[in-house]
Design brief:
Keywords: Glycoprotein, Leucine-rich repeat, Repeat, Signal. This is LRRCT domain-containing protein. It comes from Callorhinchus milii. By secondary structure, the protein is α/β, with parallel strands linked by helices. The protein has a domain at 273-317. The protein is built from 4 helices and 20 strands. The chain has helices at 2-11, 280-289, 291-296, 310-316, and strands at residues 12-13, 16-17, 23-25, 30-32, 50-52, 60-61, 74-76, 84-85, 98-100, 122-124, 132-133, 146-148, 156-157, 170-172, 194-196, 204-205, 219-221, 229-230, 243-245, 265-267. The strands form 5 sheets. A 12-stranded mixed β-sheet has the order 3-4-5-7-9-10-12-14-15-17-19-20, with no helix packed on it. Strands 1-2 form a two-stranded antiparallel sheet. A two-stranded parallel ribbon has the order 6-8. The termini are far apart.
Length: 317
């Protein structure tokens, strides 16, 4: 009967039995080996497309561990206490598109550690212990579109960490220790459309920042970065910017030397604004585009919303 046939296939997939510590779903070519393993199981079916190795104890990912899994598309190593990834760890994964290394203990990444992953689209490295992104860390990732580096301790990113031709579109660097975002300090891929820098300690955003080269950027998140001052030209080259988040900073004024024609969402609440004539433009913009936000914006000197200060603005003008 059908159930008997299914059970046989469950045990013998492509002539290879499912490893004893794993469960295999033949129809989807998925293998799950989760929960307390101390080594990567041997004898995994060579045509596996998704491999789940999360919630294990795998401090070292050695070279060639997955060399026979040329059909693998997704590899999950979340919360597996990984602390060291060797060059060659991902050798043979010529089809891999999704790699989950989040929620581990990785402190550093060696040059070219991902060089074999030419088809990788999404890389999760969030919630590790990285302090620096060294030169050529992402060498070889010629298909990478999304990169998650949130919730690390990153304070420095080498100007040559990314390849110049990188197709990266979405980069999450929130909740790190970045303070210097000048163009000299780091160089981000210029095709980025989404950049999240929230929850860092940036304080000042000058004209000569990493943003100057990001002409395709659509969404920029700078909330809770201790921003005290923003150059009037800081965003002047962001011709396609639609969403700008500046909430929960230390800004008392804001001025754009060049109008951001594409901007559709501007979030500025949670700042100690000085509501004088310099902010008339901001009040009018919020009234036209975001009435909810304008009610949230409060002034440092007078405990009233910007919306309620129109008379003060009129007098100042």
């Amino acid at each position: 009967n059908n159930s008997w046939v299914h059970s046989i296939h469950h045990c013998l997939w492509a002539g290879v039995p499912c490893p004893s510590d794993c469960s295999c779903v033949v129809s989807q070519q998925h293998v799950t080996c989760e929960g307390g393993l101390t080594s990567i199981p041997e004898g995994l079916p060579t045509d596996t497309r998704e491999l789940r190795l999360s919630s294990n104890h795998l401090p070292l990912i050695g070279s060639g561990c997955f060399s026979n899994l040329s059909h693998l598309i997704a590899l999950h190593l979340t919360s597996s206490q990984v602390s060291l990834v060797n060059p060659g760890s991902f050798q043979g994964l010529v089809s891999l598109q999704y790699l989950h290394l989040d929620q581990n203990r990785i402190e550093q990444l060696e040059e070219g550690v991902f060089r074999d992953l030419t088809q990788l689209n999404v890389l999760y490295l969030n919630d590790n212990q990285l302090t620096e992104i060294a030169a050529r860390t992402f060498q070889g990732l010629t298909s990478l579109r999304w990169l998650y580096l949130s919730q690390n301790r990153i304070s420095k990113i080498s100007p040559s960490a990314f390849q110049r031709s990188s197709p990266l579109q979405r980069l999450h660097l929130d909740s790190n220790s970045l303070t210097n975002v000048s163009a000299d300090a780091m160089r981000l891929p210029n095709r980025l459309t989404v950049l999240n820098l929230s929850n860092n300690k940036i304080r000042r955003l000058q004209y000569n920042s990493i943003l100057r080269r990001l002409k395709f950027l659509i969404e920029l998140d700078l909330d809770n970065t201790s921003l005290e001052a923003v150059s009037s030209k800081a965003f002047s080259r962001l011709y396609r910017l639609q969403v700008l988040n500046l909430r929960d900073n230390r800004l008392d004024t804001l001025y754009f030397a060049k109008r951001l024609k594409s901007l559709a969402q501007l979030r500025v609440s949670g700042n100690p604004w000085c509501c004088d004539c310099r902010l008339v433009w901001l009040k009018r913009w919020l009234q036209d585009w975001n009435e909810t936000e304008v009610e949230r914006v409060r002034c440092e000197r007078k405990r009233r919303t910007v919306a309620a200060l129109h008379r003060t603005f009129d007098e100042a003008l």
